[in-house]
Amino acid sequence: MTRKTPSLRSFLIGLIVALCLSTPVVAVAAPFPALPEVAPAPTDNPTTPAKVELGRMLYMDPRFSASGTVSCNSCHNVMLGGDDNRPVSVGVHGQTGGRSAPTVWNAAFSSAQFWDGRAATLEEQALGPIVNPVEMGMSDIEQAMQRVRGVPGYAAYFEKAFGDDSMTAEHAAKAIAAYERTLITPNSPYDRYARGDTSALSAQQVQGLKTFTEVGCNACHSGAAFNGPALPVGTPFLNTFPVYKDNAYVAKYALDADTGREEVTNKEADRNRFKVPTLRNIALTAPYFHNGAVATLEEAVQVMAKVQLNRELTPQQVADIVAFLHALTGEFPAQTMPRLPATTGWTFEFSSAK
Ligand code: HEC
Ligand code: HEC
């Protein structure tokens, strides 16, 4: 025996021990797929650069609100997390609605839109806020489209996007939806991990992922967008919230005050049923829940464990899950504010803005 062999052996053993000790939890397989790099589009509205360009303009343009001050971006700010970081949104004339603005980032991966899933598609959703009395406050879509037609410069963009310059509500909705399909955030640390880069998550984040699945969060927050299984377009993945009502959180945060899906279907079985929201970029979209009642992600995780799973998490488990949720913050495609076609003359009668 040379003196080399035992030292090589002990070196190898040492190496194996060191590897095991330094990466104790990396063995967790990624249970959910990475977010696709392209959002699916319906066959009657393929995403094209011309539609995206027009859609971005309409999205940013406040002239289609009654007061001339509120655009989609007012409440779904794409320079931020795609929401307004308010408990409930402020629309025209300073009015507030009853629900918190969800993020538009990755809404394209949702099988239905709104907290109660009442709109099947982004196209169907897009014109709703314009005529919502507390959002953009126009009396009807035709009135809003008159405003669009009142901006002559828009004609060329409709022409480019749809092959004719008819400025219809259908075309406006399709353009906005096409733009929204570009608002996706792939390549988060979790996505890189799911594609095999085990160094993309910290040890605590891997532990958090493990805890997330062990305590059962994934019963609802599964799939690439962490909003449930892939369902046909128009079918929301709904769940009762809160499931367990016998705890202090429900009263403290008025979690059962909004009847949710029941408002849409008038069925008692749908009381307090809500769409399972995406957890992508959740670290950026406080405050949390449909009523925006919970200020921090730590508290939201504790509330969820209690009201959905009847579990108390240890502070360590909460910290680990929160660390993991931070790994769902993706890469945001750069957003540039468009130049909007000019208002020619004083053609609009805006209601007084407050
Ligand atoms: C005054 C604030 C406000 C404005 C302006 C506004 N929204 Fe919203 N948006 C909301 C709120 C609040 C909700 C949730 C309502 C609900 O679920 O009942 C919502 C929901 C949505 C959703 C559903 C997301 C999901 O995950 O379910 C999309 C998409 C969306 N809005 C896009 C738009 C577009 C496009 C515009 C402009 C045409 C717009 N919004 C204008 C506040 C606003
Ligand atoms: C039984 C289904 C279910 C389970 C299990 C579940 N969730 Fe949820 N989750 C939901 C629903 C439904 C909502 C929407 C609640 C609402 O209406 O505000 C939600 C909302 C959330 C939100 C707030 C999202 C936002 O945009 O404001 C977070 C964060 C969250 N869940 C994390 C978790 C974590 C972490 C776990 C595990 C401890 C978990 N959830 C377990 C169904 C579930």
Report how far the terminal alpha carbons are from each other: 89 Å
Mean pLDDT: 91
CATH-defined fold name of the largest domain: Cytochrome Bc1 Complex, Chain D, domain 2
Sequence of strands across the biggest β-sheet: 1-2
> Regarding CATH, which class of the largest domain?
Mainly Alpha
Question: What series of H and E elements makes up the topology?
Answer: HHHHHHHHHHEHHEHH
Report Rg. Answer: 24 Å
- For the record, the count of structural domains works out to 2
Strand content: under 5%
Which range best describes the helical content: under 10%, 10-25%, 25-40%, 40-55%, 55-70% or over 70%?
Answer: 25-40%
The biggest beta sheet is recorded as: 2 strands, antiparallel
Q: How many strands?
A: 2
By CATH's scheme, which homologous superfamily of the largest domain applies? Cytochrome c-like domain
Explain what this protein looks like in three dimensions.
The chain has two domains: 49-180, Cytochrome c-like domain (Cytochrome Bc1 Complex, Chain D, domain 2); 189-326, Cytochrome Bc1 Complex, Chain D, domain 2 (Orthogonal Bundle), CATH 1.10.760. It is mainly α and 354 residues long. The protein is globular, with a radius of gyration of 24 Å. Mean pLDDT is 91; it is low at 1-6 and 15-24. The chain is 36% helix and 2% strand. It has 14 helices and two strands; from the N terminus they run H-H-H-H-H-H-H-H-H-H-E-H-H-E-H-H. A two-stranded antiparallel sheet has the order 1-2. Helix 2 crosses helix 8, helix 10 crosses helix 14 (315-326) and helix 13 crosses helix 14 (315-326). Bound molecules: heme C (HEC) (2 copies). Residues 115, 215-217, 219-221, 239, 241, 243, 274, 276-277, 279, 282, 285, 288-290, 300-301, 304-305, 308-309, 321 line the site of one heme C.
